[in-house]
Amino acid sequence: MVTACTSSPTSSPSPIAEARPPSSAAVAAVENQITSPPSIGSAPAAVAVAPLSRVLLVGDSTLLAVERYRALGSFRGFDYVYSAESCRTLGVPSCGDPPVPPNALEAILAADGQFDHVVVMAGYDEWWTSFPQSFDLVVQAARSKGARHIIWLTYREGVGYVAPDGSSANEAFVRNNQTLRDKIATGEYPDVLLADWYRYSGSAENWLANDGIHLKPSGARGVADYISRWIAYLEGRPCPMPWAPGGPIDAFCPNPDLHVPVSDIDALY
Asked: Are the beta carbons of 134 and 105 closer than 8 angstroms?
């Protein structure tokens, strides 16, 4: 598990309130400061700075690319704990040669402290029959850590990825995405937000490896940027970066699922 903290400034239909501009009271407070400056020689007024949110990032080998390609610096606008392991499952024992890595459930429960958000980019090695129960266990674990939001990245579909046992995994990805939608449609998971990584990444050139799920260096930066924008959107903050090198930064970051991916992610970072 890697813990990091950035110092840079600062979903899948989901019932999320759009980012709003500052309230009229906040605007009036700022105007009052402008029209009534402190007297000469007085101490400067303290400026309250909202603390950065704390985020737990839990992933399998797809998210592991961010560390492997040294793209952790592309997570911006929040403090984070990063945990990604190859062959990590959600709630059943992970795959691979012993000792197998902790699954997502175990990783969340083992993480120290409380979190504002938990991001899940794992489950590519979880078969569709165990996925519904594993989803519930992961959600319960994230809630136990105080998470206000659980941001779950959808799975890539129409891919040639082969599971460790040699079977085609695409059926599981399709069924698991449907399970995510069905679960949320029940209304019992208002804190679970689907970040539609499947569709967002589909239009990004040169992000994906030949198997359709793992990431190239550009994709590693792209998914970190995508997650960062999602969190900025939820919190009504400015985007962590412009959408193009040298471009303006949105004062209120839009839902990245309603935007095209960054066209030149390598130049941006």
From this structure: yes
What sign has the CA pseudo-torsion 91, 193, 143, 236? positive
Alpha-carbon distance of 223 to 139, in angstroms, equals: 22
Q: Is the pLDDT of residue 26 over 70?
A: no
Give the N- to C-terminal CA distance of the chain in Å, as an integer: 24
Question: What is the overall mean pLDDT for the chain?
Answer: 86
- Tens digit of each residue's pLDDT (9 = 90 or more) over 79-116: 999 999 999 999 999 999 999 999 999 999 999 999 99
Nearest by Cα to 111 from 77, 135, 147, 78: 147
pLDDT at 39 > cutoff 50: no
CA dist 202 and 217 (Å) reads 16
The pLDDT confidence band at residue 34, using thresholds 50, 70 and 90, is: very low
2-5 β-sheet, strand order:
2-5, 79-84, 54-59, 117-121, 149-153, 192-195
Distance of alpha carbon 105 from alpha carbon 188, whole angstroms: 19
61-68 and 217-235 helices, crossing angle to 10°? 100
| Measured distance CA(9)–CA(87) in Å, rounded | 34
Counting beta carbons within 10 angstroms of the beta carbon of residue 148, is it exposed (0 to 12), middle (13 to 18) or buried (19 or more)?
A: middle
H or E stretch at 105: helix 104-110
Kind plus residue range of the DSSP H or E element containing 84: strand 79-84
Residues contacting 240, CB < 8 A, separation 6+: 8, 9, 10, 76, 77, 225, 228, 229, 232, 253
